[in-house]
Specification:
Blueprint: H1 2-10, E1 12-13, E2 26-39, E3 42-48, E4 53-59, H2 65-71, E5 79-88, E6 96-107, H3 121-126, H4 128-131, H5 135-157, E7 161-162, E8 168-169, E9 181-183, E10 189-192, H6 197-207, E11 209-217, E12 230-239, H7 243-264, H8 266-271, H9 277-284, E13 289-291, H10 292-301, H11 314-321, E14 328-331, E15 344-345, E16 348-352, E17 354-359, E18 364-371, H12 376-385, H13 394-398, E19 407-413, H14 414-422
Parallel strand pairs: 1-2, 4-6, 7-11, 13-14
Antiparallel strand pairs: 2-3, 2-5, 3-4, 5-6, 8-10, 9-10, 11-12, 12-19, 14-17, 15-16, 17-18, 18-19
5'-O-[N-(L-asparaginyl)sulfamoyl]adenosine is lined by residues 173-174, 195, 197, 218, 220, 227-228, 231, 233, 235, 365-369, 409-411, 413, 415-416, 427.
Length: 442
Amino acid sequence: MTENRKQKTENHLTTIAALGSHVGQVVTLQGWVYHLRSSGKVRFIVVRDGTGLAQAVLVKGRVPEEDFENFGRLTLESSLILDGQVRADARAPGGYELEVTRLQPVHIAQEYPIAPKEHGVGFLLDHRHLWLRSPRQQAILRVRDEVSRACRDYFHDRGFVLIDTPILTPTACEGTTNLFETNYLDRGKAYLSQSGQLYLEAAAMALGKVYCFGPTFRAEKSKTRRHLMEFWMVEAEAAFYALGEVMVLAEGLVRFIIQRVLEHRGADLETLERDPGPLKTAGAGPFPRISYSEALQRLQSQGLEVPWGEDFGGDEETVLSRMFDRPVLVHRYPRSCKAFYMEADPEDPRLALCVDMLAPEGYGEIVGGSQRVADLDVLLNRVAEHHLPPEPLEWYLDLRRYGSVPHGGFGLGIERVVAWLCGLHHVREAIPFPRLLDRLYP
Ligand code: NSS
């Protein structure tokens, strides 16, 4: 290894993505073998380094004999350090080629379990730690990184303060059916957070506009292509916001994310064979808005009968989201199917001042939000109606005792957005290590 380090310092250490600015120069690349091929006295290595793929060419006589011999030891995914001169070559993957002057294997890989042939998804998920190395999975992870950064920039630029809400909590936020329980030493039970919202409401009363971004946990007992047991959610909360302002903020965020991904991750969308056309349309906005009752009528016209008062399931969301070429905001669901904290619509108190955003192309719900109950007595009644223990919620009730104001916010599920933007069939590929009903490994 010390030998390698000495070598590396002699030439300019660079990455495959940056090869274009080093044409004609001798540089060093560090990476892994993606593909090997021989033809006469020439050896080809397609190398990957996390920033791209590049072809390296070894010609007998132009590299030390020992290095040429070492080519024969290489296997798929072996790690190596290459020195060579950069050449522009329109036919080469990435547009540049490395004419190798030195090849130093770092580690010769054992037989790699993921072959270029088709594997079943179960096998790939069992090897998720290696599957991440494939160009497709790398592209998804880069899109995810862009989405996360776009969320932070969007809120930061608009004066929202990042608040880190707790993971271990004494109460439920989104119903008690899917809580992950754990023991909190001798204080009894604690639950893994389903949402940072309640804590965010407290912070909004301190700072005005706040957001949180972190993992959330829901023991989802059904297997669907939209549900994870652990997913990442970005949530916003603002004092003095009514439902209308919540909808504007959520639409702005989604359009901002789309534009950033189109602007910076075009090459990754191409790797994923994701047509950017529908994303351009969606990103242009404005997003249509329909009420729950209008959504019911639209579903009925497609032969889907949902009794008034029931929430939409995956099938209904798929059908609704296919009716529009951009995300649709469905607002004012019946209170009976929504969370305890939602403010009633003064025009029709059977309804909640809430909104779900459904992504197009059949992807379904990506955002859920609402205006929150501001009045203490109303909230006390809700807590009782939903059979929630009031003691652990005393602090939350306090927010309605000391300078209560109308307020609201929303949560956006990162994996659902990434799945839609990348055109994935299932959210399991949108997170590095998915936690599913039947999977906790690796
Ligand atoms: O349950 S939500 O609709 N709403 C909340 O949790 C609110 N407390 C957010 C808020 O107002 N601060 O979840 C929000 C989003 C939802 O639209 C999905 O995009 C995502 O979180 N979500 C999920 N993604 C993946 N897997 C699962 N299980 C999941 N559940 C929700």
